[in-house]
Amino acid sequence: MFKVEDLGAVVRITLQRAPVNAISTEFIAGFMQVLDGLASKTDLSVIHLRSDQKAFCAGADLAQVQSCFAIEGGADVMRQNITHFHALFDRLEALPCVTLAEIGGSALGGGFELALACDLRMASSSAKLGLPEAKLGLIPGAGGTQRLTRLCGPGIAARIILGCDVVDGATACQLGMVQWAVAPEKLAQEAEALAQRIASQSAPALQVAKRCIAQVGTLAPSGFSAELDGIHSLVSTVEAQTRIQAFLAPRN
């Protein structure tokens, strides 16, 4: 599910779970193993995250979500599953190195929450980004309500989360959801150049700067707890089950 390339101070991780890098418990466990393997790398300055699928990451594996509907205590299972998302995204955010998400295709729901856990985001101008979980009777419960609000403010967060707006990369850049938007054909080259440029800087200085930036607008644990409680209450509703089943139904 992952291709890891050690380029010296830069490590490139390519998501490879066909067809859209849906995030399952196995995906999260695999990602954690990749990070475990990098923990002892002393010269690491940048993790460059990208995809070789048609989407950067389509978010939570909805088939796995749907499986919770049929079991007793499914809401509790769903809540536990989402804590694994939180663990991965919190770990990404806390890494001492710089993390860069190269978003060449759709980054929706949990896929955009994954990108939000990175320090930097460069998107194709035509990529689609958003947190449309309300359409499925859910919320962006893996840090999305918190990280997007911290990044862009409550007004933009409300537009994206409550309005279920899915925007292209160019608009996402204007809104502050990503820092760069480039032409699709230039994305890989530009992202690689950015990763190398950052890696050429002083690694200790980057680490200290990243820690200082993180002190501004530190996220409160109560916000993440509210997300988990919200997911727990929503996933057991007929509303969410009906909407997710309709979304997963074969298209004619």
From TrEMBL:
CDD domains given in the database record: crotonase-like
InterPro entries: ClpP/crotonase-like_dom_sf, Enoyl-CoA_hydra/iso
Protein name from the UniProt record: Short-chain-enoyl-CoA hydratase
Source organism phylogeny: Bacteria, Pseudomonadati, Pseudomonadota, Betaproteobacteria, Burkholderiales
